[in-house]
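Regression report. Comparing outputs from two consecutive submissions.

Submission 1:
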Amino acid sequence: MDGRGRVRPGDARLFRLDRTEGQEHALYVAAGKDTLRQQLTGWLADGGVPVLVVRGFGSQS
């Protein structure tokens, strides 16, 4: 919005409802490596699906 409370062109793209409101379950995508976070977020952001990174233990070779 501008300083006078008017909607500017393009503001509608910024509006998003909570996709989980009223839902019994929530959807998340978990990645095992942080290097996948950016790629997965790029694919899933438009759908509002959050991406989590779950780092495991380092290899013990």
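Submission 2:
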Amino acid sequence: MKPRKARNPMLVFRFMFKSKLLVLLLILCFLDALFTDIGLQLALIQEANPFIRHLYEWHIIAYYLVKLIFPLALMLIYPYIRQKLWVQPCLTLTVIVYAAVNVYHFVWLSYGLTYVAGSA
């Protein structure tokens, strides 16, 4: 049996950003975290997830790290799993769901800011 050749970490890092869907997912996850942060800061919403709420109240950097760790982890393993048949449909579905979540955030944030500005 031939020994497996180790992959160059820089090649893996460069490949992480070749997938437009993965980059889009990372951006959408960041926007989700940012919109939630803005909504919480302005008291327009409350965080429903108790774990995320605890993180947010504990430290804002921990909140953002946890919100971004999963898309970053997926970006790291993607070069190794991209050939599997289920990966691309699941990635596409995840991007669609996060896009819908961000549209929802944008709507309530726009409504909330309009309401706050109108009552001032």
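Expected: both submissions complete independently.
Actual: both completed, but the second showed a warning that disappeared on reload.
Relevant detail on submission 2: The helical segments are 9-16, 20-41, 50-58, 60-81, 87-119.
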